[in-house]
Amino acid sequence: MKTFFQIYQHFSPELKRRFWLLFFGMVFLAVVETVTVGIIAFYAAAISDPQATYDAFMGYHFILLDPSQLFPGFSIKLMIALFSLLLIIAVVIKNILSGVVTYHIAKFSAATESHFGSRLLDSFLNRDYQWHLNKNSADLVQKVNWRHFLGRYFITSCLKMTAEIAMLMVLLAGLLLVQPLVSLLFIATQGVAGIVVYRFLRKGLDHSARGCQEAETILNRTATCALHAIKDVQISGARKYFVDGFQEWGTRFSTLFGKQQFWQESPLLALESLGFVMIAGAILFMLFGLEYSPLETTGTTALLAVTAWRTLPAFNRVVSSMAGMRTAMPYVSSLLEEMSEMSDLRSSGEGTVGEKTISFVSAIKFVNVSFSYDGHRSVLQALNFEIPCGKSLGIVGPSGSGKSTLIDLLTGLLWPQGGEIRIDDKLLSEENVHSWRKSIGYVPQFPYILDGTLAENIAFGQAAQDIDRERVVEVCRMAAIDFLDQLSDGIDSIIGERGIKLSGGQRQRVAIARALYRCPKLIIFDEATSALDEDKDFEIRQLILQLKGKQTLVIVSHRPSTIAECDNIVKIDRLL
Ligand code: ADP
Ligand code: MG
After folding, report:
1. Nearest CA owner, ligand 1 atom 13
2. In angstroms, what is the span from residue 13 Cα to ligand 1's centroid?
3. Which of the 8 DSSP states describes residue 428?
4. pLDDT tens figures, 432-456
5. 522 phi and psi angles, rounded to 5 deg
6. What pLDDT, in 10s, does the model give residues 110-125?
7. Which pTM value belongs to this model?
8. How far is the CA of 573 from the centre of ligand 1 (A)?
9. Packing angle between helix 156-178 and helix 180-228, nearest 10 degrees?
10. Where located (predicted)?
C-alpha cells in the first residue's frame, strides 16, 4: 500500500485522472458481476423447480399490484423465456464490461510504465558525469527496462486486487444478508488464514525475489559487455569465458526463479488445502459434535460450499495479486529510490531553474586548478594557463598524465577540487555550465557514432525534421568528408551502430563535422588523431590547422608534433 502511494505521487495529473476513472470502472464491474451471479443462481432455481418459482413470483405483490392481473396470460414458459433473456443480457453486459476494463487496465499499466521509463532515463541523463563514472551503463539500461515490473506486474496486480476486493465486498455483503452466521464465520476464518499464510510466506518471497533481481542484473551485464566488445571477444577467443559466466548465473537464476514462483503460488496452495480442511472439518463437527442428522448436514454444507465456490477463487486471486506485488517489490523499490533521488536533485535547484548564461569573447583562465578522482591521488595540481579567444592551445603530456581529465574540467563534466576556471572572468559553475557547453564543440579520440544516417550523426540530438541540411553539407565539406560520394544516399546513408561501416579516419571526420555543426566558439580535439595511421593523422591535422585563426582551438595530444603549430602550449606531467 505504502509503495503504491509512493508510485501514485510520481503520477502525472493525467495518469491520476485515468487511475480514478479505472478504479470506479472496476468497482462498477464488481457490482455488475455480483448481480449476474445472483441472476444465475435465480435462473438455476427457476429451471430446476419452475412451478415453485412461478408460484413465488405470482404470489409476490409489487406494491399492492397483483402480478396475475398485471401480466394476464403469464405462463411458466414465458417466465423461463423472460429469465433467459435477462440472463443473456446480464452475462453479455458483464463480459463486455469485463473486456473493456481488462483493456484499460493493460493500457493504464503500460502508460505508467512509459511514464516512469522516460522520467528515469531523463534522470540518468541529467546526472553529473562523475556519477556516471561509477556506474555500469548496462545496469542503468536494465533499470529503465525494469519499468515493466512497475507497470505490468505491480500496478496491474494492484488494480486487479482492488477489483477483486471490491467484488468480494459486494459479494460478501450479499451473502451476509442471506445467511449471516455461516458467512461471517467463513469470512473470518478465511481472512485470518489468508493474513497468517501471507505473513508467514512473505520472507521467502522477498528473499527469492531479491535474489532473482541480482542474478538478472549480472546476466544482463555479462551479455552487454560481451556484445559491446565483440571484436576483442572474437579475436582473443574470450567467448567461452563470457558464455560460461552467463551460464553459471543462468543456473543460479533458475533455482531462484523456481523458488520465487513457488513462494508466489504457495499462498494459493496453502489456502486451498485449508479451505478443504475447513469444509471437511465442519461436516465432521456437525455429524459427530452436534449430532446433526445427515440431511441437516447436507443442507448447511451446500450453503457453505456455494459460499466457498464464489469467495474462495476471488479470495485466492487477492492473495496471489499480493504475492505478485511482493515479487515486483525489489524492482519497484529500486526504481522509486532512483525517482526520489531525482526529485531531491530537482528541488535542490539543479536543472533548468536558475540557469545563467555565459559569454566567451576574451579568455578562458585556469587558476591553480587541482583535481583528484578519489580524493587521495592528485591527477592535476595547481594548473595555471590561459586561452585567449581566437587562439589555439596545445596540451601535451604522456598518456595517463591527466589530459582528458583537464578537458572534462574545461567542459564542466568534472569540477576542480582546488582553484577555479574562469570564462571572461566569470566563474564556471553549475548554474552557467549548460550555457557554456553550448559554445563547445568536442572531438574525442573514439567518437560515438549513432546507429543512424550521416545527417543524424552530424546534427547529433536533433530530430530529423529540425536538421539544417544545408549546414550539414557545409560542415561535411569543412570536415573534408570525401567519402560522401561513395555513400549511396549521400547524407541520408546509414552508417551503422557505433559507426562500424566507417574507418577510423572517417569516423573522426564525422566527429569533426558534428563539432562544427553547432557553430561552436571553442573546439576541443582530445587525441583526435592518435588512433589514426600517419597519413590520415596528417590529413586531419591539416584540417584542424585550417580552422586555426577562425576559432578558438584546444588540441590535446601525447605527440609533440601534433601541437607544434599551436599558439600556446601547456605541458602536463604524470604526478606520482
Ligand atoms: P590522459 O588523457 O592524459 O591519458 P586521463 O586524464 O585519461 O589521462 O587520466 C589521468 C589519470 O586519471 C590516469 O592515471 C587514470 O588512471 C586516472 N583516471 C582516469 N579516469 C578515472 C576515473 N574515472 N576514476 C579514477 N581514476 C581515473
Ligand atoms: Mg586521454
Report:
1. 400
2. 45
3. P
4. 888 899 899 999 888 888 888 889 9
5. -130, 130
6. 999 999 999 889 888 8
7. 0.75
8. 13
9. 170
10. Cell membrane
